[in-house]
Design a protein that fits this description.
Number of strands: 0
Order of helices and strands: HHH
Radius of gyration: 14 Å
Distance between the termini: 23 Å
Structural class: mainly alpha
Largest sheet: none
Mean pLDDT: 85
Helix content: 55-70%
């Protein structure tokens, strides 16, 4: 059973979002996107370095921008954001 074409997990750092997200994506046959990993890939910098250089506000701005991108991509093509239209 797939309850939705896209699921977004939110929670505090270290809560297990990535671990649960991967398992949930596999069980529901959905692609998995880890925003931290995606940010690191796009910037070429570790999350810890982004926090050191830009602070939490800078990181949250990047995270929010990427989440909006993912949500818009998912909404525009009725497929999971990671599937890319």
């Amino acid at each position: 059973m797939n309850p939705a074409p896209n699921l977004f997990l939110v929670g505090p750092m270290g809560a297990g979002k990535s671990t649960i997200g991967r398992a949930l994506a596999a069980a529901l046959e959905l692609p998995f996107v880890d925003l931290d990993h995606e940010i690191e890939q796009r910037t070429g910098a570790a999350i810890s370095l982004i926090f050191d250089l830009e602070g939490e506000a800078g990181f949250r701005m990047r995270e929010t921008t990427l989440l909006r991108e993912q949500a818009a991509a998912a909404a525009s093509c009725s497929r999971p954001a990671a599937a890319r239209c």
